[in-house]
Amino acid sequence: MPLGERARDKGESRYCGVETEFSNDMPQLLSFHIDAGFDFVLSPLVDPTYRPSLDSSDSGSLPVAGSDLVLSPSQWSSHVVGKVSSWIDLDSDDKLLREDSEMILKKEIAWASHLSLQACLLPTPKGISCVNYARCVNQILQTSNNLQLWLRIPLRKHEDGDPTDDQSLGGDPVDSWETWNSFRLLCEHSNQLSIALDVLSSLPSLNSLGRWFGEPVRAAILHSGSFITNGHGYPCLSKRHQKLITEFFNHSVQVVMSGGKASTELATNNTGNHVGSKRHPLKQYLHYIGYLYQKMDPLPEQEQFELGYRDFLQSPLQPLMDNLEAQTYETFEKDTVKYSQYQRAVSKALLDRVPDEKASNVTTVLMVVGAGRGPLVRASLEAAEETSRKLKVYAVEKNPNAVITLHSLVKLEGWENVVTIVSSDMRHWDAPEKADILVSELLGSFGDNELSPECLDGAQRFLKPDGISIPSSYTSFLQPITTTKLYNDVKAHKDLVHYETAYVVKLHKVARLAPCQPVFSFSHPDSSPNKDNQRYTKVKFEIPSDTGSALVHGFAGYFDSTLYKDVHLGIEPTMATPNMFSWFPIYFPLRTPICIKPGMPLEVHMWRCCDSSKVWYEWCVASPSPSPIHNSKGRSYWVGL
């Protein structure tokens, strides 16, 4: 059964293809491989022995694998990926070879477009230079509407100049990522240009491999020579290869099996017998790939919920300017982990605030500022019940629509004698008494980006001098990332505003290039006489030396907060609260991606700026090469006070 139809698919189809040699009988070729269980063939469309300069017929027609009529349009589109002739060398010193290469490249891509193929494989660049090759491909991309071009790149990085790696695919002993990066830069980051990675028997380091998950890898060509034989005589992969293929599945990369026997099988099977009756030489390899797919753990419920948000740019909430809608409240209220942490924090605060001997006599005043539809009110009351402490709650909410729901909730739960609802902006409310505990959930993906500091500055005036704020502090973090998908999505808008806007994104197809660094921190209550919520910081990132070069498309932002004492809440990857989905990371784009070489520090500057009506961020790279200062004066993106 084809991989894409197997059970436990996680919402995105998985396909497995097979690389073949040229055949004059495309229907027979396709039937043989599809009947064996493969989803598609990666096949040359033109006789590889053909050279335009040697064609004496003057017909100008390509020796193709049958006319467009030999397969139906849906078969061409669904089951065939074209393969451009591998002999082409558009950067050759041989003028005739160069001209032949340019002519055949354009003709073969034109034929593939005529067949309505979804993709076509370009051969690996030969030698160090690929400038003319990229120029010709870029010309094709300018006029091609839908055809995806996959550039074949060997998954190879020569560690510390080690010349012993597999060079069977040709080329010099260099990091193959460098070849890809040069090519895509010359092609202006086209979103129709993708990668087909040749997975060889030797794999580079883990950090080096990690770079590719932020790149547009569409296919992994897995060579039969990369397999080993197990004790039962069947092909299998090393542990490192298994892990890599599983990661490819997680990133919707299609696997393509390649092996000499699969290419020659049809040539030796023209005896008139039904071709499907002969066992496919790569059948066992396909079964093994299927086995790896089947044994993957099913996606957790949270990940299934987040599938539709993967690598999708969302504008951050404007909680002060805009009133949230019911659907937004509904989504956030489903995050039971978050409210469980808040309940733990309130419980610990109540126990510290009121000793056991005074539990029956002392009533703690707790104010929930930004109460929404009441989940924090509920968590606080459950904490009081859990600790046997008496509580008086003020639920302060500025959204009049949420206040309606709050009144209904209080009545439904019988909380009238415990909860007082206040329909007001916390910054403008005059509280009738001081609070022992101030509870809020004003945190954004970057900690302070939904104006928690400004809101709590306005609310802390009705907190007792020894009162407790939950959360008590929070810190934002930055991390450089490769994310071709998000960069191209921003680039598609063709304006400055989108390059200077911070987005909330469920990051998926990204490469995290270095550990996070802290950026801005805030503590509450803040008793300093001259409170200032403006911030400026400079951070330096060191890309691990075994990563190789990498392209930085921007920065992922996270936060970590201390609710109370040892109760934390956050999304910073190394200490993220498990199974919590209220916050996705934030993404700060760069107008021009920055290439980082091994051992070269990345210096980033960031500002949090405020005036009387708004708060905004500015950011830039200072080295290895300076970038413009993004979002100067908040011209593109800001949060309204």
Topology:
Layout: E1 16-19, H1 26-35, E2 40-44, H2 73-79, E3 80-83, H3 95-114, E4 119-122, H4 131-143, E5 148-154, H5 176-186, E6 193-199, H6 206-210, E7 217-223, E8 228-229, E9 235-236, H7 239-250, E10 254-258, H8 260-264, H9 283-294, H10 301-306, H11 326-333, H12 336-353, E11 363-369, H13 375-387, E12 390-397, H14 400-413, E13 419-423, E14 435-439, H15 452-459, E15 463-470, E16 473-482, H16 484-491, H17 496-499, E17 503-504, E18 511-512, E19 517-523, E20 535-541, E21 550-564, E22 567-570, E23 586-596, E24 602-610, E25 614-623, E26 639-640
Parallel strand pairs: 1-2, 1-10, 2-3, 3-4, 4-5, 5-6, 6-7, 7-10, 11-12, 11-14, 12-13, 14-15
Antiparallel strand pairs: 8-9, 16-18, 16-19, 16-21, 17-23, 20-24, 21-22, 21-23, 24-25, 25-26
